[in-house]
Design a protein that fits this description.
By secondary structure, the chain is of the alpha/beta class. It is built from 13 helices and eight strands. Helix 5 runs parallel beside helix 6 and helix 8 crosses helix 10.
Length: 367
């Protein structure tokens, strides 16, 4: 058969595959509605196990790679979960015409929250220095007033701290929360607001603005002295599958100094060392080792992030220097072991790390 004929045959098969996906998604939509009306949870881990198991079994019987079949089914399940989650958030419509002001709402995460609230039926007003005044749009948040059911402070960290301090004097009637990656620069504002009797709490979404499925993601709630505010904010996410964590103000930044600060710094150090090595990245990438490729992928993603935000995450964390010192110490230790030819010391370092990492269980609910 000619190449063109074979490709035509493939086109037909691919079309049928897409048709089957569309039919699957229609049924998934009906399942989602049934779950809503019968009060069942969106995610069903048992059922997912059955679906993935069946796909592997059938693949084996047809001499198809079971890993391939499983990964295709996992993608389809992800898409089912995302659409069922979206439908549930919209159906529960907690907004019901309530009003929300998003300060910094034209930024990336601010935009995510704007969409999240709009999908729940909230009337969304955006204030952001990068936009012009218009319908429910303000360049200066002061012009919007503070008469809202919810105010979200999603501005850069240093500015968010100032806004919270100002809000403490304006005493808004509604729920107020920030979404900062760090709480050190916001502590004074959060405390002032709580002391002024405001319904204030603090959130840290551990996911990026491109996230459209909250299952497997974490959202940290940091109580700022108003348990009522934290409860109300938690309820806003009850229709989603996000994992809610509660943390206190002090623990948050100490832990985040490792989770964000250390991992960002490690990747910045990696690409800085590479950039200054004199070896061209494409040439190195061609040599392609599994570890190098994975590391390059992560550090490329870090390099594309907002450098001002990343600087704030390092510099404004009062616990930030500890993990950086630990990183320098570790690199110096490796350097010394290598320079001294200390094989036993090097092996011990790796054994110790393996033992430490074995205590950290892998995320089990990622499809
Ligand atoms: O069977 C269901 O309950 C579905 O919603 C369908 C489906 C799937 O795509 O196969 C999606 C999500 C569930 O967690 C399990 C399975």
């Amino acid at each position: 058969m000619e190449l063109d004929e074979l490709r035509n045959e493939l086109n037909g098969i691919d079309r049928k595959l897409v048709e089957l996906i569309a039919r699957r998604q229609q049924i998934v939509g009906r399942i989602g509605k049934t779950k809503l009306t019968t009060g069942r949870a969106t995610r069903d881990f048992e059922r997912e196990k059955v679906v993935l198991g069946l796909a592997r079994e059938q693949a084996r019987a047809l001499s198809v790679d079971p890993d391939l079949a499983e990964s295709i089914m996992a993608s389809l399940i992800r898409s089912s979960l995302a659409s069922q989650e979206r439908d549930r958030v919209a159906a529960e419509g907690r907004g019901d015409g309530q009003s929300v002001l998003l300060i910094g709402g034209a930024g990336k995460m601010g935009g995510w929250f704007a969409e999240f609230f709009a999908s729940q039926g909230y009337a969304v007003t955006i204030a952001d220095t990068t936009i012009e005044d218009g319908d429910r749009c303000y360049k200066d948040w002061h012009d919007a007033g503070v008469d809202f059911d919810v105010i979200v402070v999603a501005a850069p960290l240093a500015i968010s701290g100032q806004i919270l301090l100002e809000l403490a004097t304006l005493k808004p009637r509604g729920l107020v929360f920030d979404i900062g990656s760090l709480k050190s620069p916001l502590k004074a504002g959060l405390r002032e607001m709580a002391a002024a009797g405001c319904k204030v709490t603090s959130l840290h979404p551990m996911f990026g603005p491109d996230t459209n499925l909250l299952s497997g993601r974490h959202l940290i709630f940091v109580d700022a002295g108003s348990a009522d505010a934290t409860r109300t904010a938690r309820e806003m996410f009850s229709a989603t599958m996000v994992t809610q964590l509660e943390m206190n103000l002090e623990d948050h930044d100490r832990l985040i100094a490792y989770v964000l600060g250390l991992s960002h710094a490690l990747n910045i150090a990696f690409f800085t060392a590479l950039a200054e090595s004199g070896e061209a990245a494409p040439r190195l990438a061609k040599l392609s080792s599994t570890t190098f490729d994975s590391q390059l992928l992560i550090s490329s993603a870090v390099a594309r992030e907002n450098p001002y935000l990343y600087f704030e995450i390092q510099h404004l964390n009062e616990f930030g220097i500890g993990p950086l010192d630990a990183l320098c110490d570790s690199v110096n230790r490796i350097r010394k072991l290598v320079a001294d030819g200390d094989q036993a010391g090097f092996v011990e370092l790796m054994r110790h790390g393996k033992e430490y990492l074995a205590t950290r269980s892998a995320p089990s609910d990622a499809v």
